Amino acid sequence: xxxxxxxxxxxxxxxxxxxxxxxxxAFVAVLNNTLLNIALPVIMDEFSVRPSDVQWLTxxxxxVNGIMIPASAFFIQKFTNKKIFLTAMILFTLGTxxxxxAPTFGLLIVARMVQASGSALMMPLLMNVMLTAFPIEKxxxxxxxxxxxxxxxxxxxxxxxxxxxxxxxxxxxxxIVLPFAILTIVLAVFKLKNITPxxxxxxxxxxxxxxxxxxxxxxxxxxxxxxxxWGALEVYGTIAIGTIxxxxxxxxxxxxxxxxxxFRIYKHPMFALASAVSIVLSIAMFSGMILTPLYVQKVxxxxxxxxxxxxxxxxxxxxxxxxxxxxxxxKYGPRALAYTGLTISVVTTYFLSRLQLDTGYYxxxxxxxxxxxxxxxxxxxxxxxxxxxxxxxxxxxxxxxxNTLQQVSGAIGSALLLTIMTNRLEQSATNxxxxxxxxGVDISAMKGEIERTAMLDGVxxxxxxxxxxxxxxxxxxxxxxRVVPPKFEPSADAVEEFKK
Length: 500
Fold this sequence. Notes:
By secondary structure, the chain is an all-alpha fold.
């Protein structure tokens, strides 16, 4: 059992240099994705495209992620981590360069999709390497560092993007990323070593097709709902097709001896529970990242840069807390952290549902920061506890499943809460107009005030629904138990491959 001996040696002295290279690549990829959001209106003006068209820069990125991430379990088992990472970084770098020079909007969309084809593999690969490199008793601290990438980059993005867009061209968002991407490739060529064991798995192309249609259809349908409306054939049609394809995909995977994505991991109760809590929490967290800037910019009429700046302390807190939370998890387990973090999240989300037209900027900053502090205590400990319940051979499937569900639940949750907000906004605006007209008031002079008040009502209502969703996660957390991970038993194929 040479692999067991080498894994024991690696656990005694984890390969921090290798992990650092993977961290840089993943951080650059995730940061670049969030940099673009605030720049969309500027890009829309430059290329003279509609809002529904410019959204394809984010929707297309999510679609490729939805297609690639489920297949990441196959790639991680089939190929060495060095080959996967280099391929992913080269694709991401190529997409970044194309975005810088893109003369047309169509080519910019292609560039974003090429970027996504590379970045989609980075987070599952990084998490799988860390699960392999660290012993069970140190996984919490290790995955706490993983949280630095997962949570900090998306939160820093809006602030940095707001400043760049106000002072430079939107292409600068890609230009600042390109040198770091190239540097990461150079480091990987000379310094990256292979850590994860491989096996000779076969890719079932029908499974890949069903997965692509299933997850891609759901992501596209829910992402388009806020713009096109739930009654559009393009929305409910793609959701229906995606759902049917996904059901067939799941049934097929359960019947296969070597599935592309192994749904049998849900036989482990704590992994299933961790997935459920993560889905609910992702909906609440990502919707908050959308609703808060909407309130700040549309109701309080504050600039995009200051809207992004408001979210920065929350990013710093999450970055600082991720390693601390990991160490607390190793010492005390997930339950106390989940109870505390989710209680904070429920309370702060409720307060966000009570905003006023003149709510103070710094009060809102404090509330948002405390909310992110609460969520930082939950996501990684819950996910780590769930992954600890799986045998090591199932780690690629577990990481692929977690990343896929976060993408899908984030998109679905954001679409649902934006729709809820929009419906409440329209209803509120109509009611206000009727009341003013009944009182004999000229509503044309009150249009701006009606819009602000209606937006406030819509945001508050959406945050109240988000409070109930977060409360659902708190209830689920009552059933969390700390798991004792199964011992690692390498397969004969894995040992032979490792010997090579």
